[in-house]
Amino acid sequence: MNYFISIFTGIILSVMISLNGQVGNIAGNYASSIIIHFVGLIGIILVLIFTKSKIGNLKGIPFYMFTGGLIGILTVLFTNASFAGLGVSLTVSLSLLGQLVISLVIDHFGYFNMPVVEFNKKKILGLVIIVAGIYVMTLS
């Protein structure tokens, strides 16, 4: 089930980048970021209301963990900016490469209290294949 959820997340991320990029082209990057995050806020409030969920205890959460929201803003701004020049597939591919590289570093060193998953030679091969795929995509 987790594999399916991850694949579905990739699908909706590509759709999101397409839609957000178009809003960015029309309204500008900063205005589109406000619009996009406001719509997201309304959406999650509705989810909380309809599921009758409660917000958990926020005490004890280290401050740096809340910076994910700021990273979300940067992600929207940067993908909107690159969307116009690169298109969806290359924007997503390069974003995934960046995610993969930093996730390997986080896993290897156990940053952010994550369990350590050491880097090995097989992962280098995977990275090389991905970089080669992105290179081939840029040729067309």
From TrEMBL:
GO CC list: plasma membrane
UniProt entry tagged with the keyword Transmembrane helix: yes
Pfam families reported for this sequence: DMT_YdcZ (PF04657)
Keyword vocabulary terms for this entry: Membrane, Transmembrane, Transmembrane helix
Membrane-spanning parts: 30-51, 63-86, 92-112, 124-139
InterPro entries: YdcZ
Protein name: DMT family transporter
